[in-house]
């Protein structure tokens, strides 16, 4: 009995050391991950010229809202940049959730001529790097269609993405076909099956799709930078570059704008965090 207690005590001691070591490692990773966010927020409360100096400080000399005021006073389009980003992100998110989910359902549960071939093309398109398509896409949108400095140019290339179609298809494949067949026997049409049966069962994956798409579009820089020459049509991520010049950078106002632009992402993620975590584990456990 004494040997057993000694063994259990030794095991608990090793487990405690192991858990402590893991906790320290995770805290270090969390600190490294959160440091840029901390520095962005702290710098935004500094004076407009303080963080642009030669020496950077982790704590500003004085906390002030001057950088936020400078951000909104710097350009008359500061609020317009946020509005443009919101329009683009919401439009692309809604279109992807609707059309990508419908396309994914068609690939998963319907059989039509060329189904496997078109899905193979979808997989091939996913393997093409994003940067490779920018030049021909720019020529098509700007030179051929003459859509520069328009909302159509900002949202058209990503209204439906291959990744979201693939994501929806993989989820719908896991849904029991017997449910759909039973609905057909009861006289449900295909649109009614999708609206009344499939979509309510897909809230998790649709929420994940909405979160990832919104965050991706809100943070995108390269494409809006290419197709928007006028300051009025820039998104917030492109608008922030206006605070950087050849000789100096208004660093604190830029961080203030970045902090403001990050708020919608934080609100969206934490409000839908439960669905996001559920979506990550979809298909991980079979029961």
Radius of gyration: 25 Å
Amino- and carboxy-terminal Cα gap = 40 Å
Instruction: Give the averaged pLDDT, no decimals.
Output: 84
Uncertain segments? 283-287
Largest sheet: none
Number of strands: 0
Helices, by number, come to 14
Bin the strand percentage: under 5%
Task: Please outline the helices and strands.
Elements: H1 2-44, H2 66-74, H3 78-109, H4 115-127, H5 134-144, H6 151-155, H7 162-173, H8 177-185, H9 190-198, H10 203-219, H11 222-227, H12 236-239, H13 251-271, H14 273-280
Short structural description:
With 287 residues, the protein is mainly α. The chain has helices at 2-44, 66-74, 78-109, 115-127, 134-144, 151-155, 162-173, 177-185, 190-198, 203-219, 222-227, 236-239, 251-271, 273-280.
What this model shows, in words?
This protein has 287 residues and is an all-alpha fold. The chain is 69% helix and 0% strand. It contains 14 helices and no strands. The longest helix is centred in the first third of the chain and has 43 residues, at 2-44. The radius of gyration is 25 Å and the shape is flat.
Short key terms for the protein model shown above:
287 residues; mainly alpha; 14 helices
């Amino acid at each position: 009995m004494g040997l057993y207690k000694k063994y259990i005590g030794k095991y608990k001691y090793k487990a405690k050391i192991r858990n402590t070591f893991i906790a320290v490692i995770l805290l270090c990773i969390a600190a490294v991950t959160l440091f840029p966010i901390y520095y962005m927020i702290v710098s935004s409360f500094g004076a407009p010229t303080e963080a642009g100096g030669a020496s950077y400080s982790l704590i500003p000399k004085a906390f002030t809202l001057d950088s936020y005021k400078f951000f909104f006073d710097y350009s008359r389009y500061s609020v317009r940049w946020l509005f443009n980003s919101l329009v683009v992100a919401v439009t692309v998110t809604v279109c992807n959730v609707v059309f990508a989910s419908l396309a994914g359902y068609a690939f998963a549960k319907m059989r039509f001529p060329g189904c496997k071939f078109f899905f193979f093309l979808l997989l091939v398109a996913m393997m093409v790097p994003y940067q490779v398509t920018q030049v021909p896409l720019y020529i098509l949108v700007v030179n051929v269609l003459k859509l520069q400095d328009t909302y159509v140019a900002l949202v058209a290339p990503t209204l439906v993405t291959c990744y979201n179609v693939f994501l929806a298809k993989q989820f719908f494949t896991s849904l029991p076909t017997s449910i759909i067949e039973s609905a057909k026997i009861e006289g449900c049409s295909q649109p009614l099956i999708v609206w009344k049966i499939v979509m309510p069962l897909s809230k998790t994956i649709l929420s994940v799709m909405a979160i990832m798409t919104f965050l991706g579009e809100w943070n995108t820089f390269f494409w809006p930078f290419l197709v928007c020459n006028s300051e009025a049509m820039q998104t917030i991520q492109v608008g922030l570059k206006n605070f950087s010049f050849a000789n100096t950078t208004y660093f604190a106002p830029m961080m203030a704008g970045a902090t403001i632009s990050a708020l919608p992402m934080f609100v969206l993620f934490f409000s839908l965090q439960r669905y996001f975590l559920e979506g990550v584990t979809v298909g991980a456990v079979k029961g």
